[in-house]
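Field reference: sequence -> structure
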Amino acid sequence: MSFQERHTHTSTLIQDFIITFGGYLGGSNYSNDVSVYHIKTNTWQQLVPSGKPPRPRQRHSACLYKDNKIYIFGGYNEKVFDDIAELSINIANNSNALSR
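Structure field:
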């Protein structure tokens, strides 16, 4: 998998992985996908959420909590968001779950 170019996304380090969420793709296109960069193997992987993902956004904040949860706050996508979403990462199983 190649990583789609974007900006104003967030990237969060968990162990030897960089978890990337959202961002601006250009035009009127915003992302809500979750990608993982495997530092040791120099490869990308797209994660498929098992819950309802947050709305696509850019300029949000992300914070790591207890080594496997990323909290996503706010952002922008033609309007300002003030919501919080939880992204639970399971590195061992290469899976993730999103919840609000």
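Note: The two ends are 28 Å apart (CA to CA).
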